[in-house]
User: What shape does this take?
Amino acid sequence: MNERRILVVAHAKREDTVVAALRVIEALREDGAVPVLASPDRDELAAVDPAFAELSMLGEDVDPEDLELAIVLGGDGTILRAAELVRESGAPVLGINMGHVGFLAEIDRDDMDAAVRRVVDRDYEVEERLALSVQVEDADGTVVYETWALNEATVEKASRERMIEVVIEIDGRPLSTFGCDGMVVSTPTGSTAYNFSAGGPVIWPTVEAIALVPLSAHALFAKPLVVGPEATVAIEMLERTLGAGILWCDGRRSHDLPPGARVIVRRSSRPVRLARLHPTAFTNRLVRKFHLPVAGWRGAS
Assistant: This one.
């Protein structure tokens, strides 16, 4: 039987995370699996505990294509980083919440040992989440940058004092032109992140759609929009715009946008895969995350 290689994603900034990472690694080893660390994580963790220095390194000792799964110790930001690490391999990501009530983490730290046991037993399901493919074209129509996003792609003004002027296009047809601070193009997964903070709708993960939310737009028709999952959204920085822009994807990858640049966003052919141990109603996640009042509910307990 081939060795099972499990990526463990954690950082050394919190003592409880370091302790949890050691527990997960020891449990994997006891069951014959090979725990793997990404290079930055191994360096940071080894500085805290030399035991981490002995582990296999992703990309050097283990090819990303050989990963079975990634176990993530942290919040949604750490899970986004893990999704980036396994993007090319398609390995599912299992999030263990280490203190923050996130939407991507599957379980809390109290259930960590049981979760690792179920990973070892291959007792988990894989849920696919819609991701975005993002391209940037220059003023001549040449593609100069390509990336992807799980939560959102955001076109923002690059300087505080100057807004940007954009034209929005849906499926090859112009929709509106206005000055604004930016535009958020969100997936259902990202609808509770930047999209929500900007006034966009919460979209259930089972709904396949793409949301567009203007940021401080100077226009009457500048409300959030929801389009189908196969729609192509384009945001063009008009040549006459006074300020430069910047593209951010998941708050992790960026690219400068001069006047004339065009950002094209569509559904990616490669979804992000999340490992799930048990079904949890998205409604429950919303109630927990936003501390929503449900007193008086007369449904089943």
